[in-house]
Structures are given as C-alpha cells and as structure tokens.
Amino acid sequence: MLNHRISVLAVLALFLAGAPACAQPKYKDGTYTGDTEIEWGQVSIKVVIQGGKIVDVLFLKMPDDRPRSVEITEFVQPRLKSEIISAQGVAIHMVSTATVTSYGVRTALVSALAAASKK
C-alpha cells in the first residue's frame, strides 16, 4: 500500500514539474484501472498499455445521474481519450465546460499509470 502511494506521488510529481515528453515513464504492458469520486459521481477508467505506450482508454463508469451529466460525459470522453493517448501520461489539457470531470479522469489516470509504472 505504501509503494502504491509513493508511485502515485511520483507520477503526480512528474506532472506538476512539467516534465518534458522524453522524460515520460515507460509503462508495463497490460490493462490498468483507476477510479475516483467527483462531485457528480464515480469516474472509473481502464488504460491499455502495449509496447510501453498508452494505446487505448476505456471509460468504465462516468457521471450519469442527470441529463446534463450524460451530456458532459458524451462530450468529454473522446477529447480526453485523445489527450491521454497523445500526452502518454497525465499532462493532459482540461476540457472546457467539463473541468470537474476532466480532473476526475486525470485523478483516475494517475492511479492507473502508477500501477503501470511499477517495476
């Protein structure tokens, strides 16, 4: 458990330090999940790593408690998926009008990538 927290902190530190793309960690191949709770509900994602790179992001659970939540979820998913694959890490741009959801996805991503970075 302590190692998991240290890994999450290490990935978050890279993001906050604005590490250049060449300093991105190499990930272990596999599928990794991460989740968090935001104001509008649960965010749960699955990240697929192949060849040490993020190749896919699946949104397992997103806020859907009201029509506006569903609308935001449908709008934000393809944009964040593209951002995550392009960034190959947590240094993603937030999506305007979906800031809280974007932060939730990024928090879940930190958790998933921490597990993928374990040696």
Q: Report the sheet with the most strands, covering strand number, pairing sense and barrel closure.
A: 3 strands, antiparallel
Low-confidence stretches: 1-7
Using the 3D structure, state the CATH architecture: Alpha-Beta Complex
H and E string: HEEEHH
The rounded Rg comes to 14 Å
What is the β-strand count?
3
Order of strands in the sheet with the most strands?
A: 1-2-3
Separation of the first and last Cα atoms: 15 Å
Structure annotation, total helices: 3
Helix content: 40-55%
What is the total domain count?
A: 1
Mean pLDDT, to the nearest integer, reads 84
User: What overall geometry do the principal axes of the alpha carbons give?
Assistant: globular
Q: Name the CATH class.
A: Alpha Beta
Secondary structure blueprint with pairings:
Layout: H1 2-16, E1 30-38, E2 41-50, E3 53-61, H2 67-87, H3 99-116
Antiparallel strand pairs: 1-2, 2-3
Helix pairs in contact: 1-3
Description of the structure:
This protein is of the alpha+beta class. The chain has a single domain, classed as Sufe protein. Chain: A (Alpha-Beta Complex), CATH 3.90.1010.20. It is built from 3 helices and 3 strands, in the order αβββαα. The protein has helices at residues 2-16, 67-87, 99-116; strands at residues 30-38, 41-50, 53-61. It has a 3-stranded antiparallel beta sheet with strand order 1-2-3. Helix 1 (2-16) packs across helix 3. The longest helix has 21 residues, at 67-87. Residues 1-7 have low confidence and may be disordered.
